[in-house]
Amino acid sequence: MDIKNLKTLRAIAETGSFQAAANQLNYAQSTVTFQVQQLEQELSLQLFEKVGRKMVFTTAGKNLLPAVDRILGMVTEMQNYGKADAELTGDLRIAIPDTLLTYRMQPILKAFHVQVPAVQLSLQMANCFAIPQLVANGTVDLGVHYDVGGYGNSLAVTRLRDIPLVLVASAQLDSRTVDLRQAHQRLTCALITDD
Predict the structure, then answer these.
(1) How, if at all, do strands 48-51 and 54-57 pair?
(2) Which of 60, 145, 187, 188 could in theory staple to 128 by disulfide, Cβ–Cβ 3.0 to 4.6 A?
């Protein structure tokens, strides 16, 4: 099995189309199509079907993506065996809420790039409640987000730090009748939040 074909399949999943994958990989679209056909023949499975004018993953294609990610991860692990941090290569896909990326992660990402310059970071903005599922289904390798609980046993969770939050409200809000710390209540006021 040719690793290039698996990388092409992963690129289609990430970009959403054969053409976008071809652009990302610097291939002609016909090369992407040929590699998918090779993979389908090798696996004796149909990975894509045409819906309208677009090629979309079949159920089998979607179900194989986690295995493709594991194989590509193992290939990267083998390629990096015995290398110092500065020599490591590969891709690291991280899901993160935009507020953390904007206000907390810039110096961390810069330090990461200095330490492992050949590792390609791919950042995906996501809601804190969606991030654990993205990690669990293999869409991303790592999730960094505010603790929302409910992780189950399938994920390794490490608390990095506590971040204080501040509630800002209108001076017209009567604090004697509205306690925003009390759980499970219905309030007749507008609330704007961002993760």
Answers:
(1) antiparallel
(2) 145
